[in-house]
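Hi support team,

I'm opening this ticket because the web form for multi-chain structure prediction keeps timing out on my end. I have pasted the exact lines I submitted so you can reproduce it. The total is 684 residues across four entries, so I didn't expect it to be a heavy job. Is there a limit I'm missing, or should I split the entries? Thanks in advance, R.K.
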Amino acid sequence: MSMSLGPLTGKRVRARDVAQLAGVSRSAVSRAFSQTAYIAPDTKAKVLKAAAELNYSPDSLASSLAKGRSNIVVVVLNQVDAIRGPSFHSALIRSLQESGRLPVVLSLSPMDDGASSLKKHLTFPVEGLIVMSDSVSVDVARHAVPYVRPIMLNFERTRSDVDSIVANDATGVAELVNYLWETGHRSVGFMAGRQSSISSKIRRDALALEIARRGMHLTVEASGEFAYEQAFEAAPALVAGKKPPDAIFCANDVMAFAVMDYLRLKTQHRVPEDVSIAGFDDIFMARWPIYNLSTIRQDVDSMAAAVTGILERRRDPQNRKFDPPTMVTELVLRGTIGRRER
Amino acid sequence: MSMSLGPLTGKRVRARDVAQLAGVSRSAVSRAFSQTAYIAPDTKAKVLKAAAELNYSPDSLASSLAKGRSNIVVVVLNQVDAIRGPSFHSALIRSLQESGRLPVVLSLSPMDDGASSLKKHLTFPVEGLIVMSDSVSVDVARHAVPYVRPIMLNFERTRSDVDSIVANDATGVAELVNYLWETGHRSVGFMAGRQSSISSKIRRDALALEIARRGMHLTVEASGEFAYEQAFEAAPALVAGKKPPDAIFCANDVMAFAVMDYLRLKTQHRVPEDVSIAGFDDIFMARWPIYNLSTIRQDVDSMAAAVTGILERRRDPQNRKFDPPTMVTELVLRGTIGRRER
DNA sequence: GGCGAGTCTACACACGCGTGCAGAACAGGT
DNA sequence: ACCTGTTCTGCACGCGTGTGTAGACTCGCC
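Hello R.K., no limit was hit. The queue was backed up. Here is the completed structure from your submission:
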């Protein structure tokens, strides 16, 4: 299998080498690899045989140049583990490459709004631009690659010149509140994410709405910036009163871990006997027995597939408008939500 | 700032557009953006002004094609959070892009050795190939991109046709063992990573060597596959005897968390009073107060910089041999290593 | 054998850019 | 005024591939 090819063997093999070996013209080689172009079956077979022999495949970049259609998709993020955790990043990358696209990752500094860095680095034609960073605005994205419709995954409000996935966070939150109600919880605290984050706002609004509908009470709120350290610092405020809320909902899982750790390390409150905890995302650590967190799951694989689906539809530019895919959330019940007898 | 450019404004601007606006030839535009080519200062200024006006920068892919030198670097991994955690991935991506390279991420299925998938996806010229997956062998990497010297970060044994970074895991482990010795530990258990992983083997060998040198005892070993779940399952074996080891060293942090969680959830052993725990990597969770893990840190930023440095040196192909950069590790002492009175 | 219809191949150009080379423009010296 | 040297620009070709088009070739029929 590994034929021990010497040190850094020669140059890449080009179409003309294959043509020479197969005894045909270079353009015949090109046609053999094209889906649409016309070519006699036996010439095609001859070419493919020679190509396999030389281990040739067409240079996809030169091909992009010639066709005027690139297969490069740029994924913009701040940190790999920012919004949906590394698992979504993995799923997205894999989905892109399995659909024959080339994922290029662009990582921004935490506070970079991308205005200059996007234009500096995006000096090549792209098929798509996927923005996972919530510090990059729609305007910046549109301006950085004016000839393409960006796919915004930071949940900025929908605009016509932008594609996005409608993450149905509100439904998931409603489901959670309903379960909390049924299990006897009446007062709820909320740990918010970043101020600028739309998803944090969506989750908070849904929480407030559903709570009000049932006559429950949103008793206390704090902001944890989506990060463990800040949430740990902010946690005391959530249980400061004489009576802590029945349950605390955190805008993501990591902050839920911080609240749990604060409660067990610094207070006498037990989870879930005294305080119930719920998170959002269902990252891999939520299943660890020490947390065993009840949370709202985003299906990262179907989200990634949805992104690829958008790119697929947008290949035909006359698809002006179509329904943005809606992502379903799932309430995952583990051990951090108890029952309150009434 | 955001001048509300209409919906999907026209095509990309090319060099000839700039040339026309500046009143020069297209090649003058090209020269204006070149570092080496000769051009009169005022023509250059004229061109750059026109370029700024049109928001132009040269297509880096077409440029690669023309120069016969690509700036694309492919990063191969299994999962984003596989070997060194997402933080190294972030650091590497950023280091690459800041050095003007284009990072393309290729994510393999967990068991994929890459033999076919690498050849299928790498259909374009690359400047470098960085392999972070330990399921991809040197031979596969060499064969997938025969014209380039891969940079292997899975610590396979050094070969002349491959570049790699010498991660000085052994020194870090020696430092740890020395500290364990000084704090009175005499018996040590080891939680290994994957069988196939070279880094796990390096760490185990270093541990065994240093322990033997001091007349300490490597009393028990288990394998946790670098993963929390498997480590949690394997943890009982480490403390099964009538007397658990004084300390347990885990080949990475995540497995250390699993062992700690097992001990506190399922046994009476306290950390660090009864059993000391040490990990490897210093991922962000190691600082969480519930773990507060003593561990061996890899400096992800300098590792990433080292990778970029290798690419830089290899731009000149006559640099046949140079010393591979050595990464220093640092012993991070937190709360999971206690003192044993003797 | 000649001729028309049909099938396929090779030529040539294009994609956007880098760069060797020839020659234009210009300055300075005699 | 003429020559030499220097400085710069534009022409033209090449990077590897896709594809419209003209024409070569085959085949069948009269």
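A quick check on our side: Residues 1-9 of chain A have pLDDT under 50 and may be disordered. Let us know if the file doesn't open in your viewer.
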